[in-house]
Every structure is written in C-alpha cells, then in structure tokens.
Amino acid sequence: MTNIRRMLRFAEEFTDYEIVATLSPQLSWSHIVELLPLSTIEAKLFYAKDIVNRRLGVRELRKQISRKAYERREIANSQLSEASSVPFNVFKDPYLLDILDLKENFLEADLEKAVLAELEKFILEFGQGFTFVERQKRMIIGDEDIVLDLLFYHRILKRLVAVELKIGVFKAAYKGQMELYLKWLDKHERQEGEEAPIGLILCATANREKIELLEMDKAGIAVAEYWTHLPPKNEFEAKIKTILLEAQERLERRKLLSGGKIQKQIDYFYETKDT
C-alpha cells in the first residue's frame, strides 16, 4: 500500500509528461522514493536532473540532498542581478569543504593543498560541466609575476572560470585583483568561440552587503563562503534557511529600488527643478 501511495503522489506531483518521459527511464524507484519527501517540485526536478546528468546512485543522491545542494544553488542565484555577467545555476553558496580534514588554524597554502588533494570531490561541488585546467596559473603583467589559485573550464558555458581562495572576511580589494585576472585571461587564454571568463572568490566569511554594493556580479565575479566543517544537521538546515531568506530579501529590495516608489522618490529628489 505504501508503494501505491508513493506512485499516486509521484503522478500528482510530476504532471508534465515531457519531463516524466525524459527523466523516469533513467531514475530507479529507489531514486524516486528519495525525491518524494522534498518540499518543492523545483527541488525534486533539480535533483532528478542531477541524477541523470551525473549518473548519481542513491547514496550519492542522499548526500547531495543532505548537503542542501539545491538550496545552496538558489542562495548563489538570488545574489545575481538582471544585469549580471555571471550565468545562473553555475555556482553554489556556501561551498562545503568539510571533507578536507583541515586543522583549526590552517594557512591559505594548506587550504589549497587540501582542495587539490580532494579535487575530484571539489569539482562535484561545482556541478556538471567543469573540467580542471591548472593550479597556480602564472600570469606575467609588466614586470610583475602574478599567480591565480585555480583555473577551470566550463564545457557547457564554453568559458574559463578563475577561482581564488581567501582566508578570512571578504575585502573590497579582491574585486580589483579578480578583474585583473579575468582581463589577462580574456586577452591571453580565451579561444575563438569562447565566452568571456568569469571568476569565483571563496572566502571564509562573505560580507554580503559589501559584495552587493560593489556589484561584483556585473563584473563577472561571484563571491561565496566556504565552510571547512559542518554544524549539526538541525543547525546546518537552520543556517541555510536563514542565508536563503536573507538573500531573497536583498533581491526583493533590489527590485524595489530599481523600479518602485523609493527609486521614483530618489529620482525626483535629484532631478532639476525650476526655480
């Protein structure tokens, strides 16, 4: 009887025949059982497509659900404006690096070594399409020798992705540094038919208000936090929910400012008045 109820629920929730026809032959019943308890159809479809794209087993699916892969992608998306040069559905926020087994007082070099040691798992956090290109990418600008932490290529987006790892709180200076990297890559590494490079800055703590004011996404730069260990499950879920709500609130404020009463009041204040 339980399986019959699950089948009925599946039929009620997955009403788009084309989607079902595409996904269902590649999903086992065990996969579907894991998807049904998810709260939204959007989350169900996200994980269903992830199963198909990356051929996830049930164990890996449970891991992705427990690590809130869908919610973390939505947090990253909600911080992108309509004028963003960063495509949607590419990055996550935060990145969960608890697998790295870092000591409490680790150095930036330790973080890089740990990331590289678990590179295959780390790429899975990025999602489908990423391929590793180079670490410690050397760039010579004038008489200065500059090094980029990690360089990836996204086969679906057809563009280079520069990644910088930072210790501590996000700083405004990181924007200029990443912009320099992206301009160098655009000039010297971008191939014919590729899109402009984009960048990801990973920080221990992301100052979200500062990031919004700097309009990082318009410069083709995303900023995300990394966590080196996970809190208990209930705390983790509460933290993710809080971050997502805050990101959604910022998005709503941005929409309000761009086209609502507040923006009209600001425009009126600044417009030239007859005297």
Tell me what the structure shows.
With about 280 residues, the protein is an alpha/beta fold. The chain is about 50% helix and about 15% strand. The chain has helices spanning about 1-15, 15-25, 30-35, 40-55, 60-65, 70-80, 110-115, 120-125, 175-190, 210-215, 235-260, 260-270; strands spanning about 95, 130-140, 145-155, 160-165, 200-205, 220-225. It has a six-stranded mixed sheet with strand order 1-6-5-4-3-2, with helices on both faces. The chain is globular and about 70 Å long. The model is unreliable at about 260-275 (pLDDT under 50).
Short structural summary:
49% of the residues lie in helices and 16% in strands.
Query: Which stretches of 5+ consecutive residues score pLDDT under 50?
Result: 261-275
Structural class: alpha/beta
**Oligomeric organization of the protein chains:** single chain
Question: So what's the overall shape?
Answer: globular
User: What is the terminal separation in angstroms?
Assistant: 80 Å
Order of helices and strands: HHHHHHEHHEEEHEHEHH
Radius of gyration: 21 Å
Helix content: 40-55%
Q: What characterizes the major β-sheet?
A: 6 strands, mixed
Number of helices: 12
Strand % is: 15-25%
For the secondary structure, the number of strands is 6
Q: How are the strands ordered across the major sheet? A: 1-6-5-4-3-2
Provide key terms for this protein.
49% helix, 275 residues, 6 strands, alpha/beta, disordered C terminus
